Amino acid sequence: MITLLIILQFIIVVIICIAILLQKSSSIGLGAYSGSNESLFGAKGPAGFLAKFTFVMGLLLITNTIALGYLYNTASKDSLAEKIVESNTSIPPSVPNNANIPSPAPSAPQLSNDTNATN
C-alpha cells in the first residue's frame, strides 16, 4: 500500500509541475479563489481551469502526503535512532586494548620566556 502511494505521489508531483508550467505568468494564481466569479471556461479561457486544476492537485498531494505519513508511522513502531542504538550495542569493539595504537604526535619545541619578552 505504501509503495502504491509513493508512486501516486510522484505522479501527482509531475502533473502539478506540468500544470504550473502551462499557466501564464500574468495569471493571478491563488487569488482566483478569493471570491472571483469565473466559470470553468469563462472569458479567460483555460487559465481559470488550470488554476483550479492545480489547486485540486495540490490538495491531493497534501492528502497523499498525510496518508503516507500515517501509514508509515503505523507500520514501523521503532524509530531509526532506536535501531542504530540497538545495532551498536551488539557489535564488539574491533580494536583490542592497546594493540598497535600509534603514539601521539610530538609537540613543538618551547622557546624560553626571554625570547618572547623581547618581541
Automatic annotation (TrEMBL):
A Gene Ontology biological process term: protein transport by the Sec complex
Start-end of Low complexity biased regions: 90-102
GO MF: protein-transporting ATPase activity
Compositionally skewed regions (Polar residues) per UniProt: 110-119
Transmembrane segments: 51-72
Primary localisation category: membrane
Function: Involved in protein export. Participates in an early event of protein translocation.
Annotated protein name in UniProt: Protein-export membrane protein SecG
Protein species of origin: Campylobacter cuniculorum DSM 23162 = LMG 24588
